[in-house]
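ARCHIVE ENTRY
Sequence with per-residue tokens
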Amino acid sequence: MARAAAAVAVVVMALAAAATAQMESCNTELPAVLVGNYSGLACQPVWNNFVLRYHQDKNNVLRVVLSTMYSTGWVGIGFSRDGLMVGSSAMVGWIGRKGLPHVKQFSLRGKTSGKVVVNRGFLVSNDHDHTVVVQQARIHLAFQLRFSYKLSHQHIILAFGSSIPVNNKLTKHQDKTSFTFDFTTGKAFADGSFPYKLRRAHGALNVFAWGVLLPIGAILARYFRRMDPLWFYLHVGIQFVGFIIGLAGVVAGVALYSKIQADIPAHRGLGIFVLFLTILQILAFFLRPNTDSKYRKYWNWYHHWSGRLLLFFAAVNIVLGIHVGGGDNSWKIGYGFNLAIILLAVVGLEFMLWTRWSKDSAPTPTY
């Protein structure tokens, strides 16, 4: 009985010591050199012995001090749009072999050392506001970032390596974790697979709609008019199905944006513009005048050129989306192959069309 009581006492004391150590990690004062710019920060233990101190002011400037145990190597904190390492940007700090502090931003473009690029990334910062301090076997990585919006739920990646970087080349991490941190409440949540699945659905739906179906529908309308009226019904049906699938992709994109708050205005702006042009094409079906109407040539001009603009900007936005979304080679090769096939088909069919026109002086029928 006495042994059992002693064992319980040891366990209770160990748990109490662990809780005290966690509290002390936030109660411990920052090094004096950081007090001027980094006092008054909220504090939260986030992973193992990592402690995150933070504050975001009314100008959306985020001050951060990341602290953890340290002997050698590097420590980093990444900001991700979707919870994945690839495509994120990280602030990394270490003490060099000569005892000098180093703080650098890295763009994590891949999982190999060659794709971890120094002095690149989407984080907006002032290099003069960064510093690294080691005190009592703890490293404190302090920096300031400016965002265009107030952070709420943000995907965070923490990692550390045991080797000192040489020539700003990071060695592979010894350990890492990822989670979503709520900068308004100070709570951390484990990342799930939902953002990745949603991002994949957004990309796949839009690539299939605007990158496959709509180009096929346009090809039918331009090069297969002799198959009247079959070409017309196929054109309208394929374009309408493409619009519905593309609209589903837009809904997935809106849901993804509301979850990760990705700051990618070019991709979002082009997407809105492409959706607007697509709606104009749908309206064209209902506003189509008769072939003998005096307004028919204006309708043809509007329908043809808005469609061409749509397909061009859709292709540009697909490429941009694959890039900013951190798509791997399967996405790039797959869409590149699809685009190449479509372009080759258009060139071949256009050549055949002009050859036929040169032999036939009759005008091409309108629709």
Remarks:
- Residues 1-24 have pLDDT under 50 and may be disordered.
- DSSP finds seven helices and 13 strands in the chain.
- The first helix runs from residue 2 to 27.
